[in-house]
Amino acid sequence: QVQLVESGGGLVQAGDSLRLACAASVHTFSNYAMAWFRQAPGMEREFVAHISWSGATKYYADSVKGRFTRSRDNAKSTVHLQMNSLKPEDTAVYYCAAGSALIQPIMVNTTRGYDYWGQGTQVTVSS
Predict the structure, then answer these.
(1) How far apart are CA 92 and CA 113, in angstroms?
(2) CA–CA separation, 33 vs 31, rounded Å?
(3) pLDDT tens-digit map of 69-127
(4) CA–CA distance, 68 with 120 (Å, rounded to integer)
């Protein structure tokens, strides 16, 4: 069983930055690929970023490329999402997710690719 706890959300202005963190309670964190998804009111949950078990491979949604950066620290069982140049359209609840280290590339941007989810942290960007 994997427990995920997100933190770092908040209310910021457009152009500001935020750094989200996700702490995992798991025996071997490096057994899991990790991702961030987000869900705005009335919208489906959408993929934001993925990082492989080693940190060597990262995928980003086109909407956040160049602005968001994903990282992980396997020794601390933690992943981060650095969000720069935030826009009002980035407003959503951000969820941390964990899946198999062997996740297929075709699955990394789908919710079905991940088995464990955190409770989410709210990010609100005002214009």
Answers:
(1) 21
(2) 7
(3) 999 999 999 999 999 999 999 999 999 999 999 999 999 999 999 999 999 999 999 99
(4) 17
User: How far apart, in whole angstroms, are the C-alpha atoms of residue 81 and residue 16?
Assistant: 14
Give the whole-angstrom CA distance, residue 15 versus residue 103: 34
User: What is the rounded (10 degree) CA torsion for 80, 6, 48, 16?
Assistant: -70
Contact 55, 72 (CB under 8 A): yes
Residue 36, beta-bridge partner list: 49, 96
User: What is the DSSP code string of the chain?
Assistant: --EEEEE--EEEETT--EEEEEEEE-S-GGGEEEEEEEE-TTS--EEEEEE-TTS--EEE-TTTTTTEEEEEETTTTEEEEEE-S--GGG-EEEEEEEEETT--GGGTTSGGG-SEE---EEEEEE-
**Which residues, 6 or more positions from 59, have their beta carbon under 8 angstroms from its beta carbon?**
49, 50, 105, 108, 109
What single-letter amino acid sits at 57? T
Rg (Cα) of the chain, in Å, rounded? 13
